[in-house]
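agent> call fold_tool(seq_1)
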Amino acid sequence: MSRKLHVTIRSGGPASWVIRLLTAAFVVLIVLWVPTRASDSLIDTATTALVWMAAAMSLNLLVGYAGQLSLGHSAFLGIGVYTTAIGVTRWGWSPLWTMPVGFAVAFVVGVLVSLPALRIKGVYLALVTLSLALVFPQFIKWPKIEWLTKGASGIDQVSYKFSKDNPTFELFGWNPWGNLRGQNVKPFYYWMAVLVVVFVYLVCRGVVKSRMGRSLVAIRDNSTAAAVMGVNLAVTKGVVFGLSAAMCALPGSLLAMKTGTVTPDTAMLTVSGSIVMLVIMVVGGAGSLWGPILGAAAYELIAEKTGEWNEADQIPGFLQPVLGWSEMPPSTGIFAVVLIALMFFAPYGIVGLWRKQIARVVTVVPRPAGTANLPAEGSAPAGS
């Protein structure tokens, strides 16, 4: 009777680093292939997926690691959108300079919203953040600030027109992008989205791997025990809520640059946008760094493939009895079915399913605690 192949890998060992390097090379290959070989429509789809990735990663830091349920991140995304739109069209700012401004504004708003989180949690905190998502579009339409936000009509001509009369992507008077006038700008926005995703990922990874990350997990698992162990609940919750909100504003700024026209009724700025972020995070795998990335890719792939099914005859034959009755593209319904199926077969999302299958053939032995700074076996001690 043949034995099943099973491999043991030590974390931090040569085999572990080879796997990491191969994974990184595969990701880089895909990132480089999209703007150089793919069609314009695929580049546009990939850019939208990257926007969802950054937004879902920021939400994952709050929900997946800190355990603070939020349904109002569409408002923080909207802060980034309108900061860029107003800064570019009204004050002539460079779109790049509006991103740190939106980051700062969203951080302050996030810290203020976190104040109720100090006393409530669970479904009650979800209702508080849900009210934020509901109020934001109405606040944009408020007549007293319509002079700034243009109300329900929205703000147009936000995107860069590549002429001397409009704001540029300059940095201290330096334009590293060259002359983009008359060129296809879709790859440009794609690379901007890649930079935003990389930045958000590195920030999330830095927080998770730090002492604050351990505090977040402790608060999520047992806030009382975390407080007894010396974790400052108020400061930790406030900082992570503000940081999560601030990072969600960055893809919002990019969205304003890409679309060129923003309105308060844009789907991503309403409650549906918050729900999509939450679903993406859950499908990919909450509490994991790669979960929102895989979830956003899966969501945008399904939305792109099924978004053209406007008529019953456009739906594949074997799916017409199930989806032919719908008067709208069934992309949202299909993704909902995928979510329900994952909750049964993979409750920890795509990442959890992958880890479960890999664990059958590979065992990763973690590095013993406290050995990171010890000299290698057989080496001379320091100072000898």
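agent> call fold_tool(seq_2)
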Amino acid sequence: MSAKSEYPVQLVQPDGRRVLDPEHAALVADVGPQRLRALYEDMVVTRRIDTEATALQRQGQLGLWAPLLGQEAAQVGSAHALRPDDYVFCGYRETAVAYCRGVPPSDLTRLWRGAAHHCWDPHAVNMTNPNIVVGSQGLHATGYAFAAHLDGADIATIVYFGDGASSQGDLAEALGFAASWSAPVVFFCQNNHWAISEPVRVQSATPIARRAYGYGMPGGQVDGNDVLAVLAVTRQAVARARSGGGPSFIEALTYRMGPHTTADDPTRYRSAAETEQWARRDPIDRIRRLLEREGHWDDAFESRVAERAHAVARALRDATVDMPDPAPAELFDHVYTTPHPLITEQRRAYAEYLAGDPGGSPARGEGVPR
């Protein structure tokens, strides 16, 4: 991705044919048949996770879910470009990134089940939990990246956000700070063309990646449904960050095939024809066709991937359905990293509230926390 690339980087066409692009192909020259198969498997498994979690929400087992259907290549390709010690800041749709970072399927639904404030331990995988405050993760990532730079850490930080979040002031401030202080952060915009019901043309009259130029950082577009191209440009950006080159901006052009969340009905604001057009660019089908063209596909591999996806989905379902309800007092855990008098008082008052009636309903006016 050159400093002012005007065309999306693409290495594999929708029909599985490779694209002649020596600069970016060189960045993934080490990706042979086995690594290609691994990329394919991760995309298939994460799609299965997504469809299972969506079904769990429809069945009343989850309160909400943010599907990633259609965005697997953008997430898996970029996640494979990271080292374990790199740090990831996410929004609320990066399930595939979490899976690639090593988050167990049993932890993916804890927040959405309403059983915890979080899904996984961020320190175990160097990735933050789902963030509902749109765009705020840009500031968190920039601050973390700058602090890591001051500490002399040889890492890159990456932050994921959508085209809708690009209109938030928090992102503008993060870009300005990162550019001014050369923070080693990669801004990864998953442009899935719809910010809930608003099309991307409402968010920006020009390609979103061009905003990077105004901040003095390199930026460019990549075909977000091409896992090899995403891997290439993300490797390039994280290498720049680790070497002291400062921030970069990647706009991955992809498409949200499903709803914004399970509370949304996309048929109310977009046409079936548009969805069908993007379905022909499916990221999983693309790599399957590449593997077939190059003689690396067989029935045994297909069966093994399907079995793996089914096993992960089964583990996700079992963990979600059997997830115990938290103890009421756990509501106050992990609010602050150190003891806080207000939390201590609220914990005490809530305990008195619960003690007022074993069923959780104290007599009117008695024991109600203020």
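agent> summarizing second result for user.
The first strand starts at residue 87 and ends at 89. The first helix runs from residue 22 to 25.
agent> awaiting next instruction.
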